Amino acid sequence: MNHNRFAILSAFLVMLGVSLSCYPSFHARGPLEFKPDTLPASQVGVPYETKIHVSQNDTPVIDFTVSQGALPPGLELVRVQGEDTVKLSGIPTQSGTFTFTISVSCYGTNVSGQTGQKEYSIVVEE
Predict the structure, then answer these.
(1) pLDDT digits over 32-49, tens only?
(2) pLDDT band for position 14 (50/70/90)?
(3) What is the CATH class of 27-125?
(4) DSSP 8-state symbol, 83
């Protein structure tokens, strides 16, 4: 192989590598990570606010839902705009231990279908 052909082949491989790097990698994805692991307790009639953040996602989270169980009465999920975060806030109206599952879906132009869920409990004291 002469030097000219080698230079052309090298340039082509560099260009190919650069163009491929513009797309997300399609590697085996690990599970989504939810933080915090547990939620703080609350009290009836007292304003409550905490955030749940999702990481290890290849694309932005597009949806947060309560897929099982129910939030304590008086609390709601509010999406934090521009972040992979949801805020749980409101004023609890009933005491007890409330267990629920937060599910998320992620989506992007070239990667879709990444989902995850985590079970949480909140103790609402009288």
Answers:
(1) 999 999 999 999 999 999
(2) very low
(3) mainly beta
(4) T
Whole-prediction pTM value? Answer: 0.73
Q: Which two tokens stand for residue 60?
A: 């932005």
Task: Say which amino acid occupies 104.
Answer: V
Rounded Cα–Cα distance for residues 96 and 106 (Å): 32
Q: Which residues contact 26 (CB under 8 A, 6 or more apart)?
A: 111
Q: Which two tokens stand for residue 55?
A: 């990481």
**What is the Cβ-side half-sphere exposure of residue 126, based on CA atoms within 13 angstroms?**
0
Q: Is the dihedral of CA 96, 88, 38, 111 positive or negative?
A: positive
Domain boundary assignment for the chain: 27-125
